[in-house]
Amino acid sequence: MPIDPLPDAWITYTRELGVALHRARTARGLSQEKVAYAAGISAFTYQKFEKGESRPGTPMNPRLTTLVALCSVLEVPLVELLPKDPPNLALGR
Fold first, then answer.
1. CA 79 → CA 20, 31, 85, 91, distances in Å?
2. Is 6 helix (H, G, I), strand (E, B) or coil?
3. What burial letters (b/e) apply to 52-83, b meaning 16+ CB within 10 Å?
4. What is the helix (H) or strand (E) element at residue 58, kind and residue range?
5. 64-74 and 32-39 helices cross at what angle (nearest 10)?
6. Predicted local confidence at residue 40, as pLDDT
7. pLDDT in tens, 49-88
């Protein structure tokens, strides 16, 4: 059985998360490279996260440990980065 593509709401949600990462980073005057290094991920991965992607055309889906590390580096609580209304991905599963 083929896997259903992710809903547009998830794509929007991940893009909003990317915007929040960008805002938090620029508010602290940090480069993408410094944030990535401090969080233990590659600069390329972090750059994609700010775009809301993990691979070109694929919505980001970072590990919880990665998000927590980014929050620590950016000095923001996780709830501040996550968009307000997450999509319901459990429908039909």
1. 11, 22, 11, 23
2. coil
3. bbeeeeebbebeeebbebbbebbebeeeebee
4. strand 58-59
5. 120
6. 98
7. 999 998 878 899 999 999 999 999 999 999 999 999 888 7
